Amino acid sequence: MEVTRRYWKICSLIIVLALWALFLQEFLLLAGVVFAVAWLLARQYQFVHRTQHLIDELVVNQQLDRTRVTAGETTVGTLSVTAQPEHGVSLSVRSATPPGSDAADTTCSLTDYEDNAESTFKITWPVAGEFRFDQPTVTISDSLSLFSQSTTLGPTPTVIVEPRAPREIHVGEGGDRVAAGLGKHDTEESGNGLTPAELRKYVSGDSIRQIDWKATARLDETYVREFEAETDVQTQLIVDHRSTMGRGHSGETKLDYGRQVALAIVENAQRFGDPLGWYSVSDNGFTDTIPPSTENTTYETIIHRLRTLTASKDVSTPPQPAQLSPAAATHTAERLREENMFNRSLRPFFEGTNTYVQLVAEDPLFEAVRRSSTRQDGFVRTIIVTDDQYKTELREAVKVARRGDGEVLVFLTPDVLYGQQNLTNIEAAYNEYTTFESFRRDIASLSAVRAFEVGPRDQLLRIMPTNRRSSEQ
Fold it and tell me: What is the pLDDT of residues 323-333, one digit of tens each?
């Protein structure tokens, strides 16, 4: 229980009257002081008793019409309170909206002889994330505002705000859509699987459980049925959210499109129970890592991290892409061996590969792939979601990822598809796209590697020559 400023004012007045009565020796006035003290104590006792009874019977509820929304949407909430009426006290309930929402706190009140109250409110959710309401704060006051008591009571609903989904998503190769299946991985070995592989004659040492009795009866010889062995695919998901991934319109950035692909990957891994690990990188290096696991909490955590992931913005000196591979640098150095002043000036810049190696080693995505590769055991699928801004570093990262027993899937968001909405210079955009496509094919030409383009379907169709020809006819 807390006392108010009015309570202290009355106490101060009583003290002054008591001193004045003693000074004047006015016992009648002193009796009045004693009566005032007794009255104040009685009010305090009554308030405590009524408050305790009110809290015991109090029911507070706060709820939303939806608990899963998209960023930018508005939900309607309801705050209600039900109580047994208590004479001489008033009650107010305040619901504080969580940080990240766009709404003011909401209050509903009960006065004498009222047993219920309800208040509705609207909340806009501008950013993605997971938001939890605190318990509403209940404040009880007496009718003269001398005392108050506060407590928290009621449910704490959680709202999941998902990023705005981009427009029609294109995932493909060279402008053609493809469907990359993710799920069980066939080892191409025989064993106790589910998919029939072949029928063969029984040999000594085969288990009796492998005998195909129908085939045995039909062929008058003992035959056994083998099945394809299946194994769970361990997946390492590496998502790039460097500043370059923030290019594009709000809700339709490279990261927004890449996020949808990554969420689909997590969903498939969870559906088939495949172990899933997670890495995310910004311009400044690692931002998050989760070791591979089949626990539901792991899938849910990765989904939450994906939904709340944003592109880097606070980078002062982003890494510069390496422009030449070691082979290209060596070839150029050979061409500069002819003795003249110009060649002597340029030769030192191409004779070594230290600069190249340093730039690649310092690339956050390369480091994430290198680190994830050291933890691989058995068949591993490495999935990289990034863009085409650091071509050389990405190529080297893919080479590291494909080592060992496994495969690499690269989902690239071409910079050309996330430029101006109108794409006024279609010819230049198409030339830029062909440069990207050459790079994508270069990545996909590596063994055990597939590379896909990810972006808005309508933007891609605008720059493809077949679409331009049909629109001109």
Answer: 444 555 445 44
Q: Where are the domains of the chain?
A: 2-55, 58-162, 169-183+233-319+362-472, 192-230
CATH class, 169-183+233-319+362-472 region: alpha beta
Dump pLDDT digits (tens) for 56-87: 888 889 988 888 887 778 888 889 888 877 77
pTM of the prediction? 0.60
**Contact residues for 77 (Cβ-Cβ < 8 A; gap 6+):** 62, 63, 64, 65, 95, 106, 120, 121, 122, 123
Q: In CATH terms, is domain 58-162 a member of 2.60.40.10?
A: yes
For the chain, how many residues are written? Answer: 473
pLDDT reported for residue 317: 42
Return the structure tokens found at 314.
């606070």
Structure-token pair, residue 137? 């704060």
CB 221 within 8 A of CB 201: yes
The DSSP annotation for 138-179 comes to EEEEETTSSEEEEEE-S---EEEEEPPP-SSEEEEETTEE--
User: Within a 13 Å sphere around the CA of 313, how many CA atoms are in the beta-carbon half?
Assistant: 5
